[in-house]
Predict the 3D structure of the following.
Amino acid sequence: QVQLVESGGGLVQAGGSLRLSCAASGRTFSSLGMGWFRQAPGKEREFVSAIIWSGITTYYADSVKGRFTISRDNAKNTVYLQMSSLKPEDTAVYYCAATQYSGNRYAENYHSWGQGTQVTVSS
């Protein structure tokens, strides 16, 4: 297991940007795939983005492709989600998660989760 703590959420106007960070504890971070998911009120948790252990390959939901960028720094045990051109429909609690199955889009395959950080985009 790895402990995950997200930060960087907040209130931003439509068209603005935010960068989320997820700090991980434990020695195994560099071997794990990491993902970002989000959950809006009244909706199911949905996949946003994932990155493999090396950072070479990334994956995105169609709804954020071209606007969000996932990256990781294994030396700092941290994964990031740079969000640009934000829309009101991006409003949600954002969660980072860890998996042994790199590049996975399915929440059930992630074994460790952070507590979430709220992102609110005003119109």
Remarks:
- The mean pLDDT is 96.
